[in-house]
Amino acid sequence: MAFNDRNSFRGRDSNRGGFGGAPREMHTATCSDCGAETQVPFKPDPDRPVYCRDCLPKHRKPRENRY
C-alpha cells in the first residue's frame, strides 16, 4: 500500500499509543519544586527529583543549536 502524504501514513497506527504499541503506564509522583501531584511515564526513583510540566523547564539545560 502506498502512502502519498505524511498524515495518512501517521494515522495508520494512531490507536497503538506510541513506539512500543501499548499505551504508556503512568505513575503518580509529587513535584519536587511545587509539591503538585503529577503523572510521569516512568516509575519515580525516591533518590531523584521529579518535576511537573510547569517546573520541568526551569531545570532543563538549554539545548544547543545542532545545525
UniProtKB/TrEMBL annotation:
Residue ranges of the CxxC-x17-CxxC domain? 24-60
Record's InterPro entries?
CxxC-x17-CxxC_dom
Disordered, as annotated region: 1-24
Q: Which NCBIfam families match?
A: cxxc_cxxc_Mbark
The protein's name is CxxC-x17-CxxC domain-containing protein
